[in-house]
Amino acid sequence: MARVELVRGHRDEARRALEALVETRPHPTLVAYARLFLGEVELREAHVEAAIAQYREALKVDPRLQPAQIALSHALTRVGRGEEAIGVLIDGLRATSDGVHGWMGYHTTTLHGYRLAMDRLWAEVRE
Amino acid sequence: MSGVGLLFVLAALSDVRTPRFSSGTDQVRLDVVVSRGAEPIAGLSAEDFEVRDNGARQEVQLVSRDERAVHAVLVLDFSSSLLDEAREKLKAAAASFLGKLDPNDHATLLTFTHDLRLISGPTLPGAVQFQVKKLDGSGSTALYDAVYAGMTVAGAAPGRPFVLVFTDGINYFSWLGEAQLLDVARGLEPTVYVVSTGKWPESEDVVRRVVRESGGRLWHGRSIDQLDEDFDRVLAEVKNRYLLTYSPPDPPRPGWHEIKVKLRRGKGQVRARRGYFAGPLP
Fold it and tell me: How far apart are alpha carbons B143 and B149 in whole angstroms?
């Protein structure tokens, strides 16, 4: 839903949804993706440093999340921090040289995490 | 800083990379290809070139051939659409290409499908060549991510950087969008060459634009049987480039600097990067 809001240009709604998602402490992969998309929200508002911070958080949770490696490197290049951009990309690519989350794997993991998060939320609501 | 900032930063990485120029960091370095038809023209001197930076004529110097080792970044498409026979031909062409680099050159090998893999490098060409046999992959085609990664990784080793991309198709699935790729690619230093066995639409495409603005070339609709020939053509071109340097005004005016290069006398087709960014990207 947050992704849809982001695509539609509803950045505040997207940010709220993503932050709420992180608060629920779902599966780490889902947290990493939420941070990645929060970075995108920041980037679309030209808050490049804030985007960089979100991408770093995403990689802290999941160092093998290649879209976050690319997004962080790209953002660093944009602000002229070329040396860091090269380091992030090379370190990231070396960390994933044995393969990254395939998209099937990603969706499976994400949906699994989503399901767990929803189960947790549902349990809280029932309490 | 970005763009030229990156150039300066790259030059400043002397702790992790061999310094390439002793004349200081505030230089613009420009790889220039001069050709007549398909043949590179050799034997030119600095006086044969006229270089303008935002219209202002520059005093250029020609860097000696000894300092023109290259860093070749091979970026190879191993998406599912590449069939077994084509894979073997691609591996053979890549191995042959790496074998033709000089011992003081550097090389890096990346493959891509819907994601990227750093197979080897940056290191000496022989070490990279050793890894080619193992290449494999399946999935979609993240061409924009691959071009960005190749251009960025190219800054990680000494040598004049260039990126050689092979793909059998067009971009399907990248994290970076067109605008994002173009945003930064215009400010990065490497020359980009693309060889594609797919037929590309004639309409303007971001990869085509990145290639043109980097001073590189794109060949599409090529046969997999011509890969050796195409890769050789790239190597001949990069090895016969002229490396010109000049010092822009201090400090350079922030923003895009358009570079125009032409021959003062004689005829020949001149290709070079079309500009650089000074200061942060807009």
Answer: 10
Residues 6+ apart with CB under 8 A from B177: B144
In total, how many domains does chain A have?
Answer: 1
Flag whether residue B119 sits within 8 Å of chain A, measured between CB atoms: yes
A117 touching chain B per CB within 8 A = no
B182 touching A (Cβ < 8 Å):
no
Let me know whether B231 and B260 are in one domain.
no
Average pLDDT over residues B196-221: 88
Please give the single-letter amino acid code of residue A23. Answer: E
- Residue B261 within a domain: yes
Could B149 and A77 be called an inter-chain contact, meaning their C-beta atoms sit closer than 8 Å? Answer: no
Q: What is the pTM of this model?
A: 0.84
Subunit contact B152:A100, Cβ cutoff 8 A: no
Residue B25 has pLDDT above 80, yes or no: no
pLDDT at B64: 78
Structural domain of residue A96, as residue ranges?
Answer: 2-126
ipTM of the shown complex: 0.83
Q: How far is A28 from chain B (nearest CA, A)?
A: 20
Q: From CA A119, how far away is CA B27, in angstroms rounded? A: 59
